[in-house]
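Hey, can you fold this?
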Amino acid sequence: MKKILISLFLFVLASASAYSQLQQQQPPPKLKPTFHVEDLVFVYQTLETVDISGGEVDVFLEVRNFLQATIKSIQEAKKQAGDTYQTEIPLPLAQNMLSFLSRAKFSGRNAELYKRFVDSLVESSKALQPQQGNK
């Protein structure tokens, strides 16, 4: 079920990205998710354990650097683990992050953190979908 949800989300994101890039050659759209601080820390720590191939190094470092900068901003804002934090993530970066996370292994006690993180990205991606009914 988890893989189906992630695959569906990645397909929606890829479709939105391709559609917007065909319209105009402009920067990729950005998601504006609101995360729990503890979820972002969990994702950062989990990604550090993912095995990657040589061809993924640049993309992985881009994801990791984004998370490091976000966590630094959270620390500077003096946010606590239970607080929420809104950030902007370029669509391709979010797709890559989810791709790496789908390969991660973590204990069952972290399932809620993972699900909340993915749900936040999915919810924020809905703003990118074209409006239905305007045909």
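Oh, and this one too while you're at it.
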Amino acid sequence: MADGDADLPKSIQGEQLEETGIVRASDEDVDLYVDRVSDEVLACRERGRHLFPTIRQAGIHFTEVDDEGLFVRRLTCTCCLLAVKVERWEGVRQRGRTRFHRVASNLEYRTGPDGQTYLAETGRGRMTPRQIGDSVASKALAGQTLTALRKAAKEAAKEAAKEAAQEAGGASGRRRPARTGDEAEAG
């Protein structure tokens, strides 16, 4: 930051980031992370959430009872297999019925069989889903020029417009078959 920047007004978001001490990871750190993790982990990171089965899909099975007497349920992310959602449930007997209420939920991350971890190394900063997506896209498009990409995008747009026009022409009604030479003379 230059010395004159200290006097400029800051955005509300910028002030909040400064107050909370959240530091975003650098592009280089994100690229290193993207290079070392699996596609499944990248899918969860880019999506910004994990895919846990619903109660109807997985049923509800408690694995333990904690010190407070709450039932503990553990669910593993079906995509990355590294995130485990730990839910704590309370069972209450009311008017002859037992009702269950989810009291708390948190995530735990485990290390995969090959040593892979979901979280980046400590001290690298927070990696946002947008940063992960940007890094994946940059790696996928590496080696292509911007000019070539623009040209390919224009060609794709022309092709899509041509296909849409053909579909619209066919959908507006049936075309009359072309007249043969004999029909043209008679008609």
